[in-house]
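I am hoping you can look over what I have pasted underneath with an eye to the fold:
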Amino acid sequence: MVAHYTVGGLGIRSDLVLPSLPATAPEDVRILVSDGHPAPRLRAPLRQGSNWQIGRGEWMIAEGGGCLYLDGGHTLTLWGPTAQARAHIGGFVRHAAFSAIFLHHDRVPLHAAALALGGGAILLLGQSGAGKSTLAAAFGRIGADLIADDLCAPLTVGGCVSVHPVFLANRLLPDAAQALGLEGVPSPDGKLELPPRPGLAPGPVPVRALILLAGRDPGPGRVELLAPAQVLPRLVPYVPTLRVAAELTGRADTLARLGTLAQVVPAFAVHPPDRIAALPGHAASLARMAGLA
């Protein structure tokens, strides 16, 4: 069944079910599922790693007997000879494939959550296990909407930075959800999936603050405002496709666009309180610092 979505402001026509908003934009990308032969192949590979290859305008991941092939940023083919192979490689669509897609469409793919509150957006960045999902859920307790769970796509136009909703469902460990008074749908991995609020708008939201998680605090939490020169080096590790961006898209301005984000959006190094029940109050304080209370 083909469905239409809006992901990061792009119109997506997809054979896959995506946790995204219904389409409001013209079609920019087609996602196909195929079990036919032959399997997709790059026309002219330029670089490769253990499970990936890129060419000029082409990108591919092959794993578990299946592959994802992106051609020109407009057609993504999910191929596998069996349902099991297609299910396995499909796990790379939401992060790896859309990171490459966003690069082709003038967006900087950023490994971050995005929350909309008070007419602006806050981006949460942190390594796996840093508490990004839990803090995002705490923002939800003070009225924020999660508009990107693990990958967002800031768009810089004329020195202004905005984000559109990407993938919406947040997933929490049951004890964290219980501490925050939240309920969700159990997932096979034991986490709870928290559904988004109905009626979210797909339009752009101006980015008002970057929050870089820097370890938890045993007390009430600590916050440090970062100088712009400190921000860019801290953002670079969160751009998953930066090292191949120029070869993939033929453009060399991805780092410059990331630099604009570092220059124009206030950034904070944040040590959230270790006690989960204290996180909503900490989130409210961060929202006030961003001018979004």
Summary: The helical segments are 83-90, 93-104, 132-141, 174-179, 228-235, 245-249, 254-264, 279-289. The longest helix spans residues 93-104. The first strand starts at residue 3 and ends at 7. The mean pLDDT is 91.
